[in-house]
Design brief:
With 132 residues, the protein is α+β, with helices and mostly antiparallel strands. It has two domains: 72 residues, Winged helix-like DNA-binding domain superfamily/Winged helix DNA-binding domain (Arc Repressor Mutant, subunit A, Orthogonal Bundle); 35 residues. 59% of the residues lie in helices and 14% in strands. It contains six helices and five strands. The protein has a three-stranded antiparallel sheet with strand order 3-5-4. Strand 4 and strand 5 form a beta hairpin. Helix 1 crosses helix 3 and helix 2 packs across helix 3. The radius of gyration is 19 Å and the shape is elongated. The protein starts with a strand and ends with a helix. One of its GO terms (molecular function) is DNA binding. Belongs to the BlaI transcriptional regulatory family. Keywords: DNA-binding, Transcription, Transcription regulation. This is BlaI/MecI/CopY family transcriptional regulator.
Length: 132
């Protein structure tokens, strides 16, 4: 069974699709062979990565420029926008849209320290100052 990650439009991505998209964000543009080179560990077949690219294209995440029979792929969505969508989905699905519940969960799970919370608070205060 695949695990899925969500985007703003609730278009699901598998972990493999997200991994390929991350490589495209890093490289900005890449041929399939270049993407395969960046995949750690055992390299998947060319046809596997090609299929993932076609799926990402169909889902609206990537497009390509043609060079004869070859395609150089590039992301259509910014990493920041995708991340916002994923975090928004997690916040709404698991924490009822309440950021305080996320902070409470993180602190009770020892995933965040008091100093890190202070840094977050300081950053939020700076953003508020800049917004006004």
């Amino acid at each position: 069974m695949f695990s899925y990650i969500y985007h703003v439009n609730d278009i699901k991505l598998t972990n493999a699709e997200e991994s390929v998209l991350k490589i495209l964000w890093e490289k900005e543009k890449a041929f399939i062979k270049e993407v395969i080179e960046e995949i750690p560990g055992k390299k998947p077949a060319y046809s596997t990565v090609s299929t993932i690219m076609r799926i990402l294209e169909r889902k609206g995440y990537v497009s390509y420029d043609s060079f004869g029979k070859s395609h150089r792929y590039f992301p259509l969505i910014k990493r920041e926008d995708y991340t916002k969508g994923v975090l928004s989905h997690i916040m709404n699905t698991y924490f009822g849209g309440d950021f305080r519940q996320i902070v409470s969960f993180m602190s009770s799970s020892n995933n965040i320290s008091i100093s890190e919370l202070d840094e977050i608070l300081s950053e939020l205060k700076n953003q508020k100052k800049n917004d006004t």
